[in-house]
């Protein structure tokens, strides 16, 4: 049973110490570089600290943080896409050092396959199976119906299976 309490700085500090790594991993499954992941998780804690009076139930603090990490990850990706659209195109015959670094990071077959999924499929699978959330919790976190979560999940798993088989 949830009780109405103010989320104190001490509770937020304890949550930070216990769940920072899991939130960082959540961001890593949605983003592609450690620096951005760390920035997103830090920003999530800063925002939750500023809005802690709105979190009425202490046991929902972690869910609130997860949702904030997902939303900030989306914003980061949107800003990158806009930056890519506006950035000058590199010379076609010269590969950048950044491309080489990304190629080295993307050797893990599962992460490659996850990145190829539709955004909603990836979000549902990451929250459902990595963060060990129920379908109802995923639905609430993403603002979807449970039926949509089930549909995105099953389609995502099938697409993931196909992609992993293609990589072999």
UniProtKB/TrEMBL annotation:
One of its GO terms (molecular function) is DNA binding. This is SigE family RNA polymerase sigma factor. Keywords: DNA-binding, Sigma factor, Transcription, Transcription regulation. Pfam families: Sigma70_r2, Sigma70_r4_2. InterPro entries: RNA_pol_sigma-70-like, RNA_pol_sigma-70_dom, RNA_pol_sigma-E_actinobac, RNA_pol_sigma70_r2, RNA_pol_sigma70_r4_t2, RNA_pol_sigma_r2, RNA_pol_sigma_r3/r4-like, WH-like_DNA-bd_sf. It comes from the Bacteria. Residues 108-160 form the RNA polymerase sigma factor 70 region 4 type domain. It comes from Actinospica durhamensis. Residues 16-80 form the RNA polymerase sigma-70 region domain. The keyword Transcription regulation applies. GO terms for biological process: DNA-templated transcription initiation. Belongs to the sigma-70 factor family. ECF subfamily.
